[in-house]
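Entry 14. Ran structure prediction on the chain below.
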Amino acid sequence: MFYFALKDIKEGTIEKMQGELGDPNRISTRGEKIDEVKVPSELSGGVFPVNLLANKYCPTNRDFFLKVVKRISQPLTWPSYQGRIIHKLCFKMFQSVEAYVLRGNIIQKANLLKYAQQKGQRFIRELTSDIDRKTSGMPEKPSKTMKDNFLTNLSKLVRMESETVSTFIDYTIATNFDVEVASEFRRLFPFQREISLNATPLGFSLGVKPDFIYSRGGSIVIGDIKTGEIRDFHKLVLASYALAYEYHERVPVNFGTILNINLSNERNVPIYKCTETVVISDKYRQAFLKLRDEKFNIAVIRKDPGPPPNKDVCTECPYFSHCGGT
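Output, structure tokens:
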């Protein structure tokens, strides 16, 4: 997460997005316009998590049918396990660093780099202590080498995030005689983590939680952390969070970012290259609403939409054995 603040400060990401947006009135599909964005009355009656409504891994939405109608749980896969650990590690590191900085009276003895790295390594040990048990039941089990490489690469993520946040804080302390470190931390890293939004009329389960909210210069950015390959429908996830935020807070959200974190055996740092910040335009908002209504229709009529004609798209689906492999 600290990487995104570095990217914004270095590249002027938010300023560029404001220029690209121009007139905010260009976006007309807003969450507070409830009559325009609520679930149609003939489809209402249920609510679902954002990930079920906005993700489009299956062209026919049969994964949604199997999960909601047939009540077949998604098995944990190696890619999804890695993604969960990376998510938790990022959040735990931010939380611990924030607590360290906000406790006050740290200027004379601050060693944020050492603290963050030690905490990060402890979190890795805690989060992956049951890696063998978690992976034992996976459809395709990772090898010992794959697990060892993953743990090594997590340490690279800890190092990158630790060095980023500590350099910013050390620079602030080094260049100011009268500095309030807690205030500077909030200014440099204006994140809110996993706030809980209520937007049930839009079809969302209680407690919609974007991965993070980033606010700078009066602009709000909805953040979603993704690992692996970025897909077009990930922007629909941003749109769903924006609509939920606008409904709950009555505040417009114009921008979203997909913070893409990948780990590489060939690099000594994580790869953030595919991180993308976009204007959450009507195109994405209306595409999400259309997809949401398609899925609600499946939940109402309970008819199997069938597998995709091209089974090649099924190979990475958690439901492959129930659908694509038949």
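Residues 191 and 214 are 5 Å apart (CA to CA). Will compare against last week's run tomorrow.
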